[in-house]
Specification:
By secondary structure, this protein is α+β, with helices and mostly antiparallel strands. The chain contains five helices and five strands, in the order E-E-H-E-H-H-E-E-H-H.
């Protein structure tokens, strides 16, 4: 059913949420007790967009992700790997005080680190 429910979400967006499909930020909040340190950006990088809907009075397009995709072990592992890489990359940069000009040893260490 097309149309808007007030100024926040389309009726189709509300229907999608009833079916278990959520924007990345909402999904991250719902599953954070199972995936420590998760952020919406992790979901956007590792999960497939199932639908998009218009939200807000400006009709912004928002991607929706299906929570049932996490039933599969492969998808959960991919999400955990994405979270791990983001956290470890931040730690690596903090430890080595990122400089634009790395020497060969630092580049080799970085390449081993992100495998």
């Amino acid at each position: 059913m097309a149309g808007y429910n007030g100024y926040s979400k389309s009726n189709n967006a509300i229907r999608a949420e009833e079916e278990g499909k959520f924007p990345a930020s909402t999904l991250a909040k719902r599953i954070k007790k199972y995936f420590k340190g998760i952020r919406a950006e992790d979901i956007r990088q590792s999960m497939i967009t199932r639908e998009y809907h218009h939200c807000s009075k400006r009709y912004n397009i928002v991607d929706y992700f299906d929570i049932t995709d996490l039933i599969f072990l492969k998808n959960r592992q991919k999400l955990r790997e994405t979270i791990f890489r983001r956290i470890m990359t931040a730690k690596f940069i903090k430890i080595y005080k990122y400089e634009p000009c790395w020497d060969d040893a630092s580049i080799a260490l970085w390449n081993e680190f992100i495998k």
